[in-house]
Design goal:
The structure holds 2 protein chains of 2 kinds. In chain A, 62% of the residues lie in helices and 12% in strands. Chain A is of the alpha+beta class. Chain B is built from 5 helices and 5 strands; from the N terminus they run βαβαβαβαβα. In chain B, strand 4, helix 4 and strand 5 form a beta-alpha-beta unit. The chains are: A alpha+beta, B alpha/beta.
Chain lengths: 729, 122
């Protein structure tokens, strides 16, 4: 019996030390972990007090016993400290008074334990500690600490929500277990001398439960744990108990019949039951959990259905609305938000936000966008897991890195309970922000698993919808262009005829006036009138030509052909430059030779799939504009003028930059640059203002983009990005 | 004295061209549609034809061009169009024997220069 006790004590003590160190080293700076460590350590030492059974010398045994009882005092102290550390952030009280009382009580007991008032003496073989007259003080102290801790837990439980609440419920469980262990121990001391050391087993269970509550991020629902443990205990008690029970019943009768084989019957029963046991366990567990977790299962089923149905929505907005609506409904959230990555602006933009009727009064507006370098996004790429705010806060060690503090900040701004990333082939397409649930329950591990699956399916559905949208807009654009193409020739024909009528009339009139020698007219008023008429007619003539430019630009746009082929940009740009030079020299500006023009091709620039005519048009216009800008800045002497074209390959695109050191654009003009009919050309000799609008259109027909950067009086640079032809387009 | 025929369905234009060319010393005949135009072509010995490519009713510009070339193979033809530069149209007209292709609006001056060029060659 003594040996039993010692082995039990040893094992219990070692397990306590292991669990205590494990929890402590998980997070050495956190008070919860520190006090748990101290508490388990004290329990271990108290357990070792039973080694006194080994000691032969009674006085040394007594000394040992008393010595190791002292840590026992501190079990109470540290357990209270531990509980307070758990509820500290939700229950605001002045804990100092409590600490003073407890520590003073501990010191008193400390002193008393060294005397014979607590432990009178020790009896050896069988080993038993004989309590002294004041032993009850020890029990009272222990009980007081226990009850006080329990009381604090109750307050904490009432105030807590979510994960914390769950954690505290586990601690309640552990307290009950601990109570049982303590009761058995103390009763055993005073009443039954030879009780086997089952209190150790129970003590260990207590420590295990608390460890679980502290370490695990997402503890299982406690009802589930208890029911599972209960069913397990029942099933295996039956599996073991029935054979033994029957065995002892039939032993005597069977022994008479078959002395060597009587045990086969119980053995057989044991084997059968042991084989059936797992199935019985599973079935029972399923049925009970179906009842217990009925609501949870319903919500899971709903989430799964949502996942399946998402692909049916090709309209992006409807899809997003569906997701947030359904999530709020299924999970009983206060709100849900979806952020999607915008490839043009390169950041995550809030796309949909939904909250049910009763929360419409809250003034909360989620942030409009998130940078792709924010710690939230970085964390997602790193861990590829959802972020649960409570977990982060609970397990955040003191003295945190900037990364984690930023993360907590972002989560606070979002008022999020959980944020779930949506991955599409290694890229984060967006993320789902879920608020606290209206019931304040936390998300279980299964909830989160299902949500992760849902979010990844959503990524597919979103990509599908985005593709649809693009297709639709491309089709719409194409049909618009086709309609325009159909209409434009007729309209411009009509218009051109009107122009011809106007201009030829003016021309004829001027022709007639040519035969008159105006200066010879005698009447002054007639003379002035005719001079005036002549200049007005000349104006009409000039204006007609501007009109012609406008119609040809419109026509060109309308007829822009889908005549695509492999195009070599360098040659194209060189040709465009040559054409610009020719047009300049035609207008008598040979000095254009002296301008510096450079084409740099930085690395292997592949062919572009595009329309030679359209692209050449674009570059012609850009280079022509550059010439004009330089002339405007430098006047006629343009030797310092420089136009540089840089071709590079970047990823899947070719980048063309057309830079000049001309007059540049003011910020104001830069903004309006690509608007139709915008022109900075003061004189109405050139430019109908359709140039850049049309250029942008042509570039977009190639699925490219164009951007302008300019500094007034310094220069301008246009950056064009064109995707490289993909095989089999 | 050279004779010029103008076929175009725009009255104001036809009037202006007629007036201008007459003042420049040409003899001008005009027609607002294809059929009467071709009649004029057959009856009058015309040196140059100014032809609109797109006519509203009756035979189209191309058809008239073909017939004109059949009636008088060495006829000089100036095509006139309001539809802007169209490679195909230009090529088909040239291949059918047109001598010039002008886009509206063109100044009367330019038109006259083209006509003079063509008739001088004769």
């Amino acid at each position: 019996m003594d040996l039993q006790l010692i082995i039990a004590a040893l094992i219990a003590g070692i397990i306590n030390i292991i669990l205590g160190s494990f929890v402590y080293f998980k997070n050495p700076k956190r008070p919860t972990n520190i006090f748990f460590g101290l508490m388990t350590f004290s329990i271990a030492l108290w357990n070792f007090s039973d080694f006194a059974a080994f000691i032969k010398n009674p006085s040394i045994a007594l000394f040992w016993l008393r010595g190791f009882y002292i840590p026992g005092i501190f079990i109470g102290v540290f357990s209270v400290h531990f509980v307070i550390s758990i509820v500290r952030d939700i229950v605001y009280k002045n804990w100092k008074r409590a600490f003073v009382i407890i520590y003073s009580g501990a010191i008193v007991l400390f002193v008393l334990t060294t005397t014979r008032f607590i432990i009178k003496e020790v009896a050896l073989r069988p080993f038993k500690e004989i309590p002294g007259p004041l032993y009850f003080l020890f029990i009272i102290f222990f009980a007081a600490c226990f009850l006080y801790g329990f009381y604090i837990l109750v307050i904490g439980f009432r105030k807590a929500v979510g994960l914390k609440k769950l954690q505290i419920s586990y601690l309640f469980l552990s307290y009950i277990i601990g109570l049982v262990a303590a009761l058995i121990y103390f009763l055993g001391l005073n009443l039954w001398a030879n009780l086997p050391p089952i209190h150790y087993i129970i003590e260990i269970s207590y420590v295990f439960v608390v460890t679980y509550a502290i370490i695990r991020y997402r503890v299982m629902d406690i009802k589930v744990v208890i029911s599972r443990a209960g069913i397990f205990a029942i099933v295996y008690t039956l599996v073991l108990g029935i054979p033994f029970g029957i065995g002892s019943l039939v032993r005597d009768p069977l022994y008479k019949i078959a002395p060597d084989w009587w045990w086969l019957l119980p053995m057989f029963l044991l084997v059968v039951l042991a084989t059936l046991a797992p199935y019985i366990y599973m079935r029972l567990q399923k049925r009970i959990e179906l009842r217990l977790r009925a609501e949870e299962f319903r919500s899971h089923e709903a989430l799964r259905r949502l996942s399946h149905n998402m692909l049916r929505f090709p309209n992006l907005n409807n899809l997003l609305k569906l997701i947030v609506h359904q999530l709020v409904k299924i999970l009983k959230l206060k709100f849900a938000v979806i952020y999607l990555f915008d490839t043009k602006d390169e950041k995550y933009i809030m796309k949909t936000y939904w909250r049910p009727e009763q929360f419409l009064k809250t003034a909360f507006e989620p942030p409009a966008e998130f940078s792709k370098d924010s710690s939230l996004v970085k964390d997602f790429y790193l861990r590829r897991l959802p972020i649960v705010t409570e977990e982060l806060k609970l397990f955040m060690p003191k003295g945190t890195s900037i990364h984690i503090r930023e993360l907590v900040n972002s989560l606070a701004r979002l008022k999020a309970n959980t944020v779930i990333p949506s991955f599409l082939r290694n890229r984060i397409l967006g993320f789902l922000v879920l608020s606290d649930r209206r019931t304040n329950a936390a998300f279980t591990q299964e909830d989160l698993n299902l949500l992760m699956v849902l979010s990844n399916e959503a990524a597919l559905a979103i990509e599908n919808a985005q593709f649809h949208e693009k297709e639709k807009s491309v089709l719409a654009e194409r049909s618009r262009r086709e309609a325009l193409a159909d209409m434009a020739p007729g309209a411009s024909h009509q218009f051109n005829n009107r122009l011809v009528a106007i201009s030829s009339s003016a021309e004829l009139a001027l022709f007639r006036l040519e035969n008159i020698n105006i200066d010879k007219i005698e009447q002054e008023d007639v003379k002035t009138a005719i001079k005036d008429i002549k200049s007005r007619l000349e104006l009409i003539d000039k204006e007609v030509y501007k009109g012609k430019e406008i119609t040809s630009a419109i026509l060109k746009r309308a007829k822009a052909k889908v005549d695509f082929q492999d195009v070599e940009l360098r040659t194209l740009i060189e040709n465009a430059y040559r054409l610009v030079k020719i047009s300049y020299s035609k207008s008598g500006l040979e000095k254009s030779e002296s301008l510096g023009f450079n084409i740099t091709v930085s690395n292997e620039v592949p062919l572009i799939f595009g329309s030679e005519a359209l692209l050449q048009d674009c570059f012609y216009n850009l280079i022509d504009n550059a010439f004009d800008a330089i002339r405007e800045r430098m006047g006629d002497n343009i030797t310092d003028g420089k136009i540089e074209v840089v071709l590079t390959k970047e990823g899947q695109d070719v980048i063309v930059q057309v830079k000049d050191n001309g007059i540049g654009l003011t910020k104001e003009n830069q903004r309006k640059l690509f608007a139709p009919y915008f022109t900075t050309k003061a004189s109405s000799n050139k430019g109908s203002g359709l140039g850049l609008y049309v250029i942008q259109d042509f570039i977009e027909m190639h699925q490219g983009t164009i951007r302008c950067d300019s500094e007034y009086q310094k220069g301008t640079s246009f950056t064009i990005r064109l995707p490289i032809r993909k095989r089999g387009r | 004295m050279h004779r010029i025929l103008v076929i175009d369905d725009e009255e104001s234009l036809v009037k202006n061209i007629e007036d201008f060319l007459k003042a420049k010393g040409y003899e001008v005949f005009a027609s607002l549609d294809g059929n009467s135009g071709i009649e004029l072509l057959k009856t009058q010995n015309v040196d140059l034809l100014i032809l609109d490519l797109h006519l509203k009713d009756g035979p189209s510009g191309i058809q008239i061009l073909r017939v004109a070339k059949m009636v008088k193979p060495d006829l000089k033809v100036v095509m006139f169009t309001g539809f802007g530069e169209e490679e195909e149209a230009r090529t088909s007209c040239m291949s059918l024997g047109a001598n010039a292709f002008l886009c509206k609006p063109t100044s009367l001056k330019d038109l006259t220069i083209t006509i003079e060029d063509l008739l001088e060659v004769k």
